[in-house]
Specification:
This protein is an alpha/beta fold and 153 residues long. The chain has helices at 5-17, 34-44, 57-64, 73-81, 98-104, 122-128, 144-152, and strands at residues 22-27, 49-55, 88-92, 108-111, 132-135. The chain is globular and about 50 Å long. The chain starts with a helix and ends with a helix.
């Protein structure tokens, strides 16, 4: 289900009051592939509720180039929301999820194995309110960029 930032903040507070662990991750998720699926399933196993921050179309363009995204932000959020592992999606405009994480305050923030805790600007924010950052497995060779290159031939 696609939610907005303010509802997300209230939702996380309510879930934490019920002793639920709220897991958060984020990304562009432009063309869903098996790497995304495996990653999101692993993210969900870290807690009780998984919220996925989805980069807006304008932030994807800044991060990935003018030809991206291929799918618009609402389609990407809806596709993610249709996955068994994903409980909620929230679209964010910024290039990084720092402001969104500071607002939501999830119990656990996860990123893929292509990152380290020290590389993430959001680590300081998560740890400032007592949250935890976890680095998950990296699914080698599975990426939207590789899919796009293959299609372009």
């Amino acid at each position: 289900m696609l939610i907005d930032r303010e509802f997300g903040k209230q939702l996380v507070e309510m879930l934490k009051a019920q002793n639920k662990k709220v897991v958060f991750t984020n990304g562009c998720f432009d063309i869903l592939h098996v790497g995304h699926l495996r990653y999101l399933n692993e993210a969900k196993r870290q807690g009780d509720v998984l919220i996925v921050g989805v980069n807006s179309d304008s932030s994807v363009k800044k991060l990935k180039g003018e030809s991206r995204p291929i799918n618009n932000q609402y389609d990407r959020a809806e596709m993610l929301g249709g996955l068994k592992a994903v409980d909620f999606t929230v679209i964010f405009e910024e290039d990084t999820p720092e402001e969104l994480i500071a607002c939501l305050k999830p119990s656990i923030h996860v990123k893929g194995g292509d990152y380290t805790k020290d590389d993430l600007p959001e680590t300081k924010i998560v740890e400032s309110y007592g949250g935890e950052v976890r680095i998950l497995s990296f699914v080698e060779g599975k990426s939207t960029t590789n899919i796009v290159k293959k299609i372009q031939g």
